[in-house]
Design brief:
CATH class: Mainly Beta
Number of strands: 27
Structural class: mainly beta
CATH topology: Maltoporin, Chain A
Shape: globular
CATH superfamily: TonB-dependent receptor, beta-barrel domain
Distance between the termini: 58 Å
Helix content: under 10%
Largest sheet: 21 strands, antiparallel
Radius of gyration: 25 Å
Strand content: over 45%
Number of domains: 1
Number of helices: 2
CATH architecture: Beta Barrel
Oligomer: single chain
């Protein structure tokens, strides 16, 4: 038994227990307020240079009163999130240079008084800064790209009420280099394109890792088919390692990285028939060693753990077409998955993985008429198991959203205004147990494009 399992050895197959006294409906007793602001700007001084910038800020507060009984008689979460991304693209004939910068910052203040955990007044800040540079050279027959990136993540968590529960300060830096090579051979109307990619990552807390991917695609007029296979590697993120303990979840600082072997086969029909139909189908399988999975443990709290062995396979299909060129378009996507836990054990082997929906269906339609447009989207999610032993699950749900928009011009500025009605049918559903999603609500957005 590995260290991550030893730390939670007191659970003793708690997931097989049908006693769910802690699972209490909180939808009608949880007050949530949320505000967000998004902005974006593009500058293109010449045809070969383009600079894109976008930012996002959100602020929210959630009040958790009496319905959670002894767990949180009086608790509140206050959150702030900021995201900014900037990309500079230089396109010079056969050479393309891309520089990208990303900054993420979050602030969270959690308070709870008179709880069975003794209460807390926890302030947590996280940040992520990433810088990358990619150089791509392309000819009629070959293409090669080299990308280097540097990433720094920080977390600082202090409990003002109980200092012994503070998570402290954490800092992690990652350096990665990716090399991708492609070749193209043409024979009449057949195009053959093999490709190979190698990724090198240097981690401060683990040995340097090499992952790779190889693929081959065949294109015959409007039909394209491809096959890919490769390896993957992922470090646990800070939230999985150091999740601020609350009534919902607790982190696991003993998590190990997850590794995978991936295979994919697909085909695409592009722009055929007068309706400009595009059809894509992909079949995939991912075999994992140490997959990080969230499960429920003692006190109804969720925690992440490494699974010795797991497999996720499925099929993804999408169809898009233009029913009325330039006026009416629609697209449909269907995902079917078979996520299985292959770890030995009576309550785990061949069981569905927790919090991996078995199906997703999405249907989007947009009508354009002069400066006005109307969008509708329908999303349906199938059953989602939430226990390792598959003794409990979240029911399927469907959600319907509508957006009415207007676009106008003022000199060189494009002004877009949207009015959205979300969850039109006021569907009552959860994507996380004991964490109900919003009912019917609305949103307004204004975008300026220079």
């Amino acid at each position: 038994m590995d260290e991550a399992t030893n730390r939670f050895s007191y659970i003793d197959d708690f997931d097989a227990d049908e006693n769910d006294n802690g699972s209490i409906e909180t939808r009608n007793n949880t007050a949530t307020r949320h505000r967000s602001f998004w902005m974006g700007a593009t500058w293109q001084p010449t045809r070969a240079i383009q600079w894109d910038n976008q930012g996002f800020f959100s602020k929210g507060r959630q009040q958790l009163p009496g319905p959670l009984l002894e767990l949180t008689p009086d608790a509140a979460n206050q959150t702030e999130q900021t995201h900014f991304a900037s990309q500079l693209l230089i396109d010079r004939q056969q050479w393309t240079i891309t520089s990208r910068s990303v900054l993420d910052y979050s602030f969270q203040h959690q308070t709870a008084r008179q709880t069975i955990f003794g209460g807390h007044d926890l302030t947590t800040t996280t940040s992520m800064l990433e810088q990358s540079l990619k150089i791509h050279q392309n000819t009629d027959w070959t293409g090669i790209s080299v990308e280097g990136s540097w990433r720094r993540e920080t977390l600082d968590s202090q409990d003002n009420l109980r200092p012994q529960n503070s998570l402290g300060e954490h800092d992690r830096q990652t350096v990665a280099v990716v090399v991708v090579g492609e070749a193209t051979w043409k024979y009449r109307s057949l195009v053959v394109s093999p490709g190979l990619a190698v990724r090198y990552e240097d981690f401060p807390s683990a040995s340097a890792i090499f992952t790779n991917q190889a693929g081959l695609s065949l294109e015959l007029e409007k039909l394209t088919t491809w096959i890919k296979f490769g390896t993957g590697y992922r470090l646990p993120d800070f939230w999985e390692l150091f999740w601020v303990p609350d009534v919902y979840a607790v982190g696991n600082p003993l998590l190990k990285p997850e590794e995978s072997f991936d295979r994919e086969w697909g085909f695409r029909l592009a722009e055929f028939s007068p309706l400009h139909i595009n059809f894509v189908t992909t079949i995939f399988q991912q075999d994992y060693a140490g997959l990080i999975s969230w499960v429920r443990g003692y006190g109804n709290q969720f925690y992440p753990e490494n699974l010795d062995s797991a497999r996720i396979r499925g099929i993804s299909t999408s169809l898009s077409c233009s029913l009325w060129p330039n006026h009416l378009t629609t697209d449909v996507t269907l995902d079917l998955k078979d996520p299985r836990n292959l770890t030995a054990g009576p309550n785990s082997y061949l069981k569905y993985l927790p919090y991996r929906p078995l199906s997703n269906f999405t249907w989007n339609t947009q009508w354009n008429l002069s400066d006005w447009y109307f969008q509708t989207s329908f999303h349906s999610q199938g059953r989602t198991y939430i226990r390792k032993a598959n003794t409990k699950w979240l029911d399927p749900f469907s959600e319907w959203n509508c957006t009415l928009g207007y676009q106008t011009h003022y000199r060189s500025t494009i002004i877009t205004t949207d009015l959205s009605l979300l969850n039109v049918t006021d569907e009552r559903y959860e994507v996380l147990e004991r964490y109900p999603m919003p009912g019917r609500h609305w949103a307004v957005s204004i975008a300026l494009t220079y």
